[in-house]
Design goal:
Distance between the termini: 26 Å
Subunit structure: Homodimer.
Number of strands: 6
CATH class: Alpha Beta
Largest sheet: 6 strands, mixed
Keywords: Gluconeogenesis, Glycolysis, Isomerase
Catalytic activity: (2R)-2-phosphoglycerate = (2R)-3-phosphoglycerate
Number of helices: 8
Strand order of the largest sheet: 3-2-4-1-5-6
Pathway: Carbohydrate degradation; glycolysis; pyruvate from D-glyceraldehyde 3-phosphate: step 3/5
Order of helices and strands: EHHEHEHHHEHHEE
Oligomer: single chain
Structural class: alpha/beta
Strand content: 5-15%
Helix content: 40-55%
CATH topology: Rossmann fold
Number of domains: 1
EC number: 5.4.2.11
Shape: globular
CATH superfamily: Phosphoglycerate mutase-like
């Protein structure tokens, strides 16, 4: 029995393009983001992948990415669960601010701490640790049991919500996961054993 879990970060969004902190705001994909999602679907199709279930966040850019991928696979009607537990981390007071302007206002070192520390949240927002505290329980309750049952599952979400899952799947330290870059629209393919442990990982960004 194949236990397949594919994680994919949404394609480039309008606010990615403008270099803005996005968080829970809801911009759609750019033309490049649509192309990235299309490419992700084509790569999965080349591997003859089909899915039984899909999960995504409550945000348009992740849902649109999933829709495009499923169109490429000819699986438009796939059962899909949407939940804000898979949303991007909330950037609080930084939301909507240009990242360069934030560095000018707060200082490069402070912005770097907010973006790249594990447990220091920006004002009014979430740290990666706090993001994991909502993402991982959802994964363990809703997604992992379905994979263990033998369902082939795809999750389209966000850089930091997916980092939370990858940290759990690969047993990474906070330092290791913070150094992990996830390209937009680049699927990561996991095959799991009957206990949910990773047997193999294939990054389709390579």
């Amino acid at each position: 029995m194949e236990r397949l879990l594919v994680l994919v970060r949404h394609g480039q969004s309008e606010w990615n393009l403008k270099n803005l902190f996005t968080g829970w705001k809801d911009p759609d994909l750019t033309e490049q983001g649509v192309a990235e999602a299309t490419d992700a679907g084509k790569k999965l199709k080349e591997l003859n992948m089909e899915f039984d279930l899909a999960y995504t966040s409550a945000l348009t850019r992740a849902q649109h990415t999933l829709k495009i991928i499923l169109e490429q696979l000819g699986q438009e009607g796939l059962p899909t669960e949407r939940d804000q537990a898979l949303n991007e981390r909330d950037y609080g007071d930084l939301t909507g601010m240009n990242k360069d302007e934030a560095r000018e206002k707060f200082g490069e070192e402070q912005v770097h701490i907010w973006r790249r520390s594990f447990d220091v949240p920006p004002p009014g927002g979430e740290s990666l640790k706090m993001t994991a505290e909502r993402t991982l329980p959802y994964y363990k309750e809703h997604i992992l049991p379905k994979v263990i049952e033998g369902n082939r599952v795809i999750v389209a979400a966000h850089g930091n919500s997916l980092r939370s899952l990858i940290m759990e799947l690969e047993g990474l330290t906070p330092e290791q996961i913070l150094a992990r870059e996830l390209g937009t629209g680049k699927p990561v393919v996991y095959r799991l054993d009957e206990n949910g442990k990773v047997l193999s990982v294939q990054d389709l960004a390579d």
